[in-house]
Amino acid sequence: MTRGPTTPPRTASGFFLPDSLEAAFWNIAASGWIPARWVERNVPGASDRAAETDEISIEIVSHCWNYAHLLIYQLSSLALFPPQNAKVTMTVNYAAEDQETAALLAFFSDQSVRNVSWNWRALPKEALFRRSIGRNDAALHTAADWIWFTDCDLMFRHGCLDQLADALQGCNDILVYPQAEHRTALLADDDPLLRTDLTKLRLIDIDERQFTPYRNGRATGPHQITHGDVARAVGYCNAIRYYLKPQPRFAKCREDRAFRWLCGTDGMPVDIAGVYRIRHAAKGRYAGAGIRTRARKWLRQEKGQTTAPPV
Asked: CB of 255 within 8 A of CB of 131?
């Protein structure tokens, strides 16, 4: 199943400011200096959010640019550990110029997985480089009860989606997130886990002994599981035009915090197993040898020395 890109409605707010100033403004606003209701007034109240008690449908929205070596683990996790009690649509936003990712998606299109539907969405790379554009389009058009915005380094292993579906029975919270996940250390780009041979595509699994449990404190970028009624009403930062502008290079994902601010919550934790994430020092979106690239890699390595508290 493939759906083409859709232009989001022009309902967003913005300013005639240089991008750097507008970015600073929205970053400050999302810190709580401005009431979110001044920007987003469409968040449904509790009585307008369904509390499903039947089979839960979940759309997972990921994106990939030069990360096929990680995406293969994510898609394989759904094929190896398919949900039994939930219907899942796996949406991946990508750009046709990324030939490794395109080939990987073509391979998984031929994999028939119980209760999982594949949905590949080719975007112009400039739209892909602002992650919220693809997320916003998926949010506005999802038919699912819940939509999980994630990154392609996350895996849904044994019991993950079934336990999530159980936790969402009768739930009408705006936003939830996994209380804990299993992470690797910050891996160098020559680590064997990141050296997958993409010329011989196949389902691929991990060695769980490389992962350590950690506790999450809020619904961060890969863990934003949003009520479907909320997603359809507010999109993903649809009220902020700045976060819907295509970019010439991959933009830093500050809209994650803006999304929580607009929703008015950091999310409610849910206790589910099977959430695994590969942490990596080298970023595919920062490919190159320039000063900015080297600085970002250094900062990421330094930041990686501080981790979330272990479970």
From this structure: yes
∠ at Cα 132 (221, 60), nearest 5°? 60
| DSSP string for residues in 43-84 | PPPGGGS----SSEEEEEEEE-SS-HHHHHHHHHHHHHS--S
Please identify which residue in the block is written with the tokens 């970015």. 23
pLDDT in tens, 127-178: 999 999 999 999 999 999 999 999 999 999 999 999 999 999 999 999 999 9
| DSSP code of residue 32 | I
Q: 225 has which bridge partners?
A: 148, 176
Percent of residues in the chain assigned helix, strand, coil, to nearest 5: 35, 20, 45
**Token pair 């913005």 in the structure block, residue:** 14
Is the pTM for the entire model greater than 0.85? yes
What stretches of the chain show up as alpha helix (H) in DSSP? Answer: 19-28, 68-80, 99-109, 125-128, 131-141, 160-167, 228-234, 255-263, 291-303
